[in-house]
Amino acid sequence: MADTRARLSDAQLAALARYDFGLTTEPPELPEADGYEDAEGVLVATADGGALTVREVPRWRSPASVHAELAVRGWDRPAGWVGRPPDDVSGLPDRLLVLLPVAGTAPDSAVISLGAAVWADRAAGRELVVVPVPVTAAEPEVPWLDLAAAYGAGPVASHVDPAPPSTGGRAVMFTGLSGAGKSTIAGRLVELLLAAGHTVTLLDGDEVRTHLSAGLGFSKADRDTNVRRIGWVAAQIAKHGGLAVCAPIAPYAATRADARRLVEEQAGPGSFVLVHVATPLEECEARDRKGLYARARRGEIPEFTGISDPYEEPTDAELTIDTRGTSIDESARQVFAHLTGE
Predict the structure, then answer these.
(1) Where are the domains of the chain?
(2) What is the pLDDT of residues 56-103, one digit of tens each?
(3) Residue 111: in which H helix or E strand, if any?
(4) Given this structure, which CATH class describes domain 170-340?
(5) Mean pLDDT for the chain overall
(6) What is the pTM of this model?
(7) Partners of 48 in the β-ladder
(8) Up-side HSE of residue 53: CA atoms within 13 Å toward CB?
(9) Is 324 strand, coil or helix?
(10) DSSP state of 200
(11) Which residue of 127, 161, 174, 202 is surrounded by the most CB atoms within 10 Å?
(12) Are 331 and 338 in contact (CB under 8 A)?
């Protein structure tokens, strides 16, 4: 029988690293397979008769390797810190082991390098060793003091601030039925942001379909692929501190969640903003300037969202807008205020 391989997510790889590093005694919950790969197809672990053998978890530095570096530097149990630097660094010691809890981020995530860069800038003149660790900041799988001790640090300095860093980039995704007003509001939002001096990339639905998603149809699988591609591009923009605006129908909750994960892995928590343009079906159908709903009612357009295919209303939207009582400009300004605080 041929070996079976499973491709692990970033969260699963972090769990595998925690287990391999002895930060937890519980093996991670993984799908049944003979071997496990990372996103690039590198074999990271094997399973034989229920026994899990970890070969290597790329990107994550083991506590042993950090201990070795500290020994070379001549550091004996330096003070430790978990997370980003405090606003006032005057009380920090001159020598510090910084642990960045960034479990779940992608291997090339800018969040990791950004965290190191923030420390280098804020704590200039101090000796630092900055290490990403496979622990979740908001709900740590390992107590901070135990984590610091595992990597060779002494008492955690001052206090612990586990909040993960952010690139400052954002991705705004409008979702709603055809004819709800998504694209029009998105276009007006871009105008407002440009007028305020922001650099914005608009991922126009028609252009995405023509170029990025050329060849895709409107089946559930193709729609999912289209939205995930949009999410990936938006994530790359946000990763480098940019602002992306997109307005796909995005009818399925799981796919929208994938897009959110892609963006927040690259740009940090809160970098994905979902706007539900909640114009009801009857209003969208009454507008129907392109005659799409009429064609769908006649069965000429299969798998049409709201008619022959479901639209799963968001329960996690940062903003919900109903254009029946709000103008396009007012709707766009609501989103603008959410993004800028103005």
Answers:
(1) 5-54, 63-150, 170-340
(2) 888 899 999 999 999 999 999 898 888 888 878 888 888 999 998 888
(3) helix 110-122
(4) alpha beta
(5) 87
(6) 0.63
(7) 51
(8) 8
(9) coil
(10) E
(11) 174
(12) no
